Amino acid sequence: MLEQEKELREQICLICKMMYERGYIGGPAGNVSARLSEDLVLITPSIPFKQLLKPEEILVVNMQGNKQESNHEAVKNLKPTSELFMHLEIYHQRPDVRGVVHAHPTYCVALSSAGILMNTGVLTEGMIFLGSVPTAEFGTPTTHELVDSISTLIPTHDAMLLSHHGALTVGKSPLDAYARMEVLEQVAQVQLVVEQLGGLKRLSIPQIQRILDVRKKMGMALSSDDELLSS
Ligand SMILES: [Zn+2]
User: Fold this and answer.
1) Which alpha helices (DSSP H) does the chain contain, by range?
2) What positions carry a catalytic annotation?
3) Cα 201 from chain centre
4) Which among 42, 99, 124, 156 is placed 20 to 30 Å from 90, CA to CA?
5) Separation of alpha carbons 108 and 153, rounded Å
């Protein structure tokens, strides 16, 4: 196994542990993937308790979703996550994305279920690392509906909420995508407290513009960033 693959497998296991420790996943929830090559993707299997996942249990699939043969006994009876095609849709549309994380963080789910749009304007790091965060229309988990619900949003966003379900983030690596998930959940939490304290005191347009300039300098700008200036 190449060093790069070994590192990505370890990164995915570490992310599953961190997500569990922070309460972003429980029971069978959550899935993580990494782009391994032009045609191959590493992805978590459909098993409960992802925090116990071992590097050798992570599956390799091709871009059509077919599980690749492995000599490892540990993966013989494992199936890829039921959200496999949501991950593949992202890699098909975004060659720049090398890692995808999906979880059910409490505050993100709560916002989406209450029908409240996320406003990253409550936290500078939110604006810098996430930009504008939409909520994907409801799509039944495990079905193509969920793939359809994210497919028009993914070209212009690195993070989104999934209605009544959870959150999805992408990045240059699985860890990069996971870092966004932590910022996303913090924004959701801060937003709720801000609402309780009387609502957001918006920064001025020039202030937001300067924050977006920082984001651009860091190489994270997306065409949807302008939405922050009007939200
Ligand atoms: Zn889910």
Assistant:
1) 3-21, 84-93, 106-113, 124-130, 144-151, 174-196, 205-217, 227-230
2) 83
3) 28
4) 124
5) 17
DSSP notation for 122-176: G-HHHHHHH----EEPP--TTSHHHHHHHHTTGGG-SEEEETTTEEEEEESSHHH
Ligand 1 centre to CA of 31 (Å) is 8
Q: Are 135 and 160 in contact (CB under 8 A)?
A: yes
How far apart are alpha carbons 148 and 79 in whole angstroms? 22
| Residue 127 CA to ligand 1 centre (angstroms) | 24
**15 DSSP 8-state letter:** H
Q: What confidence tens digit (pLDDT) does each residue in 151-169 have?
A: 999 999 999 999 999 999 9
Query: Would you state the structure tokens that stand for residue 26, as one six-digit string?
Result: 């429980």
Measured CA to CA, the distance from residue 147 to residue 151 in angstroms comes to 6
64 C-alpha vs ligand 1 centroid, how far in Å?
Answer: 21
Ligand 1: centre distance to CA 185 (Å): 15
| Centroid of ligand 1 to alpha carbon of 128 (angstroms) | 25
